[in-house]
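pasting for ref
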Amino acid sequence: MKSNNLIYILKKRGLLASDSLKFIMDLYLPIIGETAAFLYLFLMNKINKGEVSGNYDDLIVKSYLSNQNFLLARQNLESIGLLNTYKKDDDSEIVFVINDPETPKNFFDNFILKGLFITSSSEEEYKRIMSQYAVDFNFKKYKDIGASVQDSYKIEFDYDVIENGKKVELVGRTKNPLKDNFSDVKLLNYLCKNFQLSANSLSEEEVNNIHRVATLHGLNEAGIGQLCGECLNLLNKRGNKIDILKLRKLAQIYVKNFDVTKIGKKLNTKKMQINSGSDAIKKVKYYESMSPYMFLREKQDGIDPVMSDRKIIDKLAFDMGLSDGMINALLDYTLTKCDGSLNEVFIMKVASTLIRKKVNDTLGVVENLYTKQFDSVNNIKNEASKNITQKQKESSFFDQFDDENLLDSSKYDDIIDGDDNI
């Protein structure tokens, strides 16, 4: 007898052409890992064979993945835009929509995907893949002498007939946006209205960078748009009109001086402990419900993060390419292990190790951090605290982290690197 009567339905959005396999292996595999890559190919094969519905439990059994691995792989695919999951209101059906992988151009034009690829593999591998997919012919010295559409066809359309099928969604290759509540369209509308920009004045990379700064700091389209005006040079070429480094610094100042809770997402103040797979998912949703600045502010009962803490968040986001949810998980873990302080040496060491382990989403961070091995950090900290003199104990709380035993990154080597199974 089945433990679960849930029915699965498989759909495809795109062509799932022969190039899909190549793009998954070359572009996505370093980020999502072999289990998620296998699950994608498994589901794609099911669609190609026409096996598009059945019992959900049977689907997991036929994948030869454990329930836990199936869930984690599914989460990885959803987070990277390769899979959309929908559940019927009465919980009787679950629909998996398989999306085409991005083309190499769209993939590397996406700031987040590009950053994840480099941090998950290496800069050398990034250059190799870029070279592999580079256009193999330079047309700059050639002129297009082909006929235009008007040369062969009479352009006389009935507008009403054209509009008839506009709302029908058709199969095709489309970009798979990563989920958040920030609208690039609203941002561009704000910039065009207030700063005499046209819709194509900014490059896609510039828009992606602005988007990342906004979501990191919990700012809406108008908030970040206002700051963009301070970093805008209309005379610069497309792609260099916004000074992103200046924008990052201004966003830090903005968050410090204004109440971003009024324009950020609603906070979920429910606290949870990890003791099962289901609790882990709840914890992930909690971490992904707000920006890192909002997260720290909540942890500090409404007090704004100090500049040193904001710089740590900035490094995690832009130097290491971590998502907001991953950053929040790291912040929470570090606050727990370091007695309520954000020890930069500790948090950067943990972050670097997670990147080397190819952890690329919030669930992966949660699953990796909450293991017995990481708990051994308490033993290191207890030993270090025994060496603190009475004079040091009488000093301020933050001075304790100036002790060489605590700031020496080598103290954490055995904790972080000692087990390849983390």
